[in-house]
Amino acid sequence: MSNLFDKLTPEQQAAVDSCFKRIDIDRSGQLTEEELGNMLKLLGEPSTPEHTKRLMKEIDTNGDGRVSWLEFRESMAKYFLN
Fold it and tell me: Which part of the chain is the EF-hand domain (predicted)?
């Protein structure tokens, strides 16, 4: 996995960290599909089951059904850097 996260500013890195902690309701260190759906709602984005599944598939690069901190931070880094 590339390390795009390191290319973010310290402020952006802190924002990504804070966001992950807010979304990770059960504090497992991994995001479930339900937690991703909650994130979409917080952002005012469509949170249909189909959209959430598509997002999960995109971010969950190892295919284990959960989004790890590393997967989340790389996905968010792509967002900030584009």
Answer: 11-46, 47-82
Retrieve residue 24's tokens.
């990770």
Pick the range with the lowest mean pLDDT from 39-48, 60-69, 73-82.
39-48
Q: E strands within 35-77?
A: 67-68
pLDDT, residue 20, reads 95
Distance CA 7, CA 68 (A): 19
* Tens of pLDDT, residues 14-53: 999 999 999 999 999 999 999 999 888 888 887 889 999 9
Decide: helix, strand or coil at residue 26.
coil
DSSP H or E segment with residue 48: none
Architecture of domain 4-81 in this structure: Orthogonal Bundle (1.10)
Domain residue ranges in the chain = 4-81
pTM of the model: 0.86
